[in-house]
Design brief:
The structure is a homodimer. The first copy, chain A, is α+β, with helices and mostly antiparallel strands and about 260 residues long. In chain A, about 50% of the residues lie in helices and about 20% in strands. Chain A has two domains: about 60 residues, Arc Repressor Mutant, subunit A (Orthogonal Bundle), CATH 1.10.10.10; about 180 residues, GAF domain (Beta-Lactamase, 2-Layer Sandwich), CATH 3.30.450. The structure holds a DNA duplex (30 and 30 nucleotides).
Chain lengths: ~260, ~260
DNA sequence: GAGGGCCGGTTCATTATTCGAACCATCGGT
DNA sequence: ACCGATGGTTCGAATAATGAACCGGCCCTC
């Protein structure tokens, strides 16, 4: 693996639960020599991708990503394009709708929308990462995404988050086959005990699965009627969003010709 | 310069005017060998920082920055913290307010707010980069920031954007001295002929100038009264925002102790 | 107060990776 | 058909990265 890739890999250890990391901690997480990690973090810092703060001189993600994220949205407004679809889906179902994006071997939260119909709701985290085997979104990715991703994910040790988390690879493969036939993934308490999740794949214009669209509701108010409605609306919204994302890609092609 | 820095440098060539770049174009802009650039872009792509699109296989910024930007805002919500201050400043002055962040040797747009008081307004670009010598924000950075940055900026060839752009280093140094004494930078048509801009520096908790807060108005409706009001409100808002940003840094320190 | 364990940070001989001139196939324009 | 540009690839030479060992400082325990 090249040096650039190794350095960028370090950025993946920062997450919602660990926005601040010390040098030794990053080295431990990355399984790399502290001197090597120090050198890489120093370069990332010089370019604005991380910064050191506080008396303990811990690192956090730096400001350079803000402009790049703005540029990314300007060039290919996935978040902006997805938000109206998510809002409508949340309104129609009365539950939380969210979109995730495949990033390497992980599923990163792209955007989400809440419904104000109820006093409780399933909450989402900005910049959150969802496990693949334990959420509806993750299962959708495994079912409809690159088989190599699926093989790799199921070969790794799988973490149990709740009593409802399936961690047996054989059972998961059966589950994935059921999902493929249904065209929609469901997870009942796989990641959080009281959440019932539904997800469909999002495809780019070449048909490749690049993300997921999902609805998450508290188990307590799930009924057969609500579940059926979620499935119907989610399928339709998924097709719509895949179409919009594909159009965005075509628009990029158009931009070039116009330029 | 290390390999990681060189690779990340490539990301800086993407901008609002050039969201899509071909391999040879990036190599030309970077002054690097095409094989080298290809290898670096391939690694950046593998890590999700760029992606190739279209028949011409051009590159654009990839999705990995979205999560990192979300993480950055979650850890240190500069954009979120600045928006209320910007909105209030825009409301009170009736003109466009914007905040910029120093990124290496450039000033990147952080966030902005418009006023709806008039039918026209000075427009801003997401992910825009402002020239240092030709805008009020840039001049504020040069006046109050690191003298090394100022020396480097004035030593480089300076681009004339309008008839009002000062490109003589000597005159610019005089202008910067005036700005230091006034505590506020003003640029009349330096970057866009019909825009009058005002800016103050933003400091982090150590007192280092890290960005700017600015108001931009069309020249056509500038009056002495409006200019005086903008100066007053901008100074106050600048102090407020510097304080908030400093508090955010202290909060990061607090987060660590709580963890 | 001393000792131990951990932290962030540094050094430099050794090792691994990067570099880039030269080449290739393809495409569009003349 | 030819030319100039593109994206992409190769591999011997050159350069940069690596990491074991070390340093000073801080905090905790005895």
């Amino acid at each position: 693996m090249g040096t650039v890739s190794k350095a960028l890999l370090l950025l993946q250890f920062f997450d919602r639960d660990r926005p601040l990391l010390g040098l030794s901690e990053v080295a431990r997480l990355a399984g790399m020599n502290k001197a090597t990690v120090h050198r890489m973090l120093t370069e990332l810092q010089a370019m604005g991708f991380v910064e050191q703060v506080g008396a303990a001189r811990e690192y956090r993600i730096g400001p350079a990503v803000l402009r790049l994220a703005g540029l990314r949205e300007a060039a290919f407004p996935m978040r902006e394009v997805s938000l109206p679809v998510l809002r409508r889906l949340a309104d129609v179902t009365g539950e939380t709708a969210h979109a995730g994006l495949l990033e390497g071997t992980r599923l990163a939260m792209l955007s989400y929308a809440y419904s104000s119909r109820h006093g409780t709701r399933v909450m989402m985290d900005d910049a959150g990462v969802l496990p693949l085997h334990a959420t509806a979104s993750g299962l959708a990715l495994l079912a409809f995404g690159d088989p190599a991703l699926t093989d790799a994910a199921l070969a790794a040790p799988l973490q149990r988050y709740t009593a409802g988390t399936i961690i047996d690879p054989g059972r998961l493969r059966q589950t994935l086959e059921t999902i493929r036939q249904a065209g929609i993934a469901e997870s009942l308490g796989g990641f959080e005990a009281d959440v019932h999740g539904f997800a469909v794949p999002l495809h780019d214009q070449s048909g490749t699965c690049v993300g997921t669209l999902a609805v998450a509701a508290p188990v307590a108010r799930m009924t057969d009627t609500l579940a059926a409605a979620i499935r119907t609306e989610l399928r339709a919204a998924g097709q719509e969003l895949s179409g919009l994302l594909g159009a965005g890609a075509q628009q990029a092609e158009g931009l070039r010709h116009a330029g």
